Amino acid sequence: MKRIDSIDIMRGLVMILMCLDHTRDLLHLTSVTQQPTDLTTTTPLLFFTRWITHLCAPTFVFLSGASAYLSFTAKGDPAQSRRYLLTRGLWLIILDLTIVNFGVWFDIHFAVFLFDVLSAIGVGFIVLSFLLKVPAKMIASIGLGIICLHNLSPLVPLPESSFLKVFLMPLFGPGAMPLPGGATFVMGYPPVPWLGIMLVGFAAGRLFLQAEAQRKRMYLKIAAASLLLFVAVRFVNVYGDSVPWQVQGSGMFTFLSFINVTKYPPSLVFCLLTLGTMFLILFLVDGAANRLLRVARIFGKVPLFFFIAHWYVIHPLVFAMAYLQGFKSSDLRFGFSFGRPEGSGVGLPVIYIIWLSVLLVMYPVCKRYGEYKQLHKERKWLSYL
User: In Å, how far from its chain's centre is CA 370?
Assistant: First the structure.
């Protein structure tokens, strides 16, 4: 299948932003104790450092769906595509709960199992494998229905201890449950809401096969419609997000409240805002060329490799930071603290410096790996990394 540059570039751009978010998660002074979008404690710079990275997960999930459609179209063999989506979906879940989880926590005891974005994509691929013969319009309708209506799931009247409440509601919303041996399973990315985004991405895959001028017009129309609908739904403040916006003490913080949308799970207005922004960026980068986009394309050609590797570049810096700040091995706190000692961390200016340094390390590695994949297409295992 011929690669589509705009998809690689868009993926690469959001992976650059994702790296910033994870650098902040692991190293910022208040990342363990405070939410950067909590308007009672945040600053505008900290808020936007987190908020801009909201673009990453929905873009990655949407483009995973679109890429699945393009691969299915190129293969022309439903049975082969079904096998690939099934095996890749299972592989992503296994990777997420093992290698990625260790990269996130660096805890040899695996006290926390996080069901993260790769697992959500994996579940989406598995579901898609059974929908390949369903008309694209029907898949789009299902996806849009999930995006628009899943916010109603908390309103379903279920007893707290019922089977449906305990085992089905985590499919719709984040939560945590104890596991044997003292470990904790955390549902970070409930699969049903993210499945909606993937299904819409799959149904929209044909957009990327249109001529450049035609698809750019569609990108702009979809972006405008999504962003205008976001403003309208958010302004009404009745439905679309579990946290309504409120007038704050200043115009700036009122604006922050307005755009402070819920990611876990992705609310309707979250999807309108982030996917609308994604289509606007696609409109701007499709057919464009500059140094930043060339760098983004390198990262975007090997997204899974980047995703796994960047954790193993960032996380050792947590321990280096701790020792430089005078902490000892006995001070390290694992589990939900990422191994960070209490009181450790660096400010935002240092976070940005570390982020750029990590990207400098990742660039030649990703470039070399991308070249290796290109030269060895006969090695099927490379398609899984």
Answer: 22
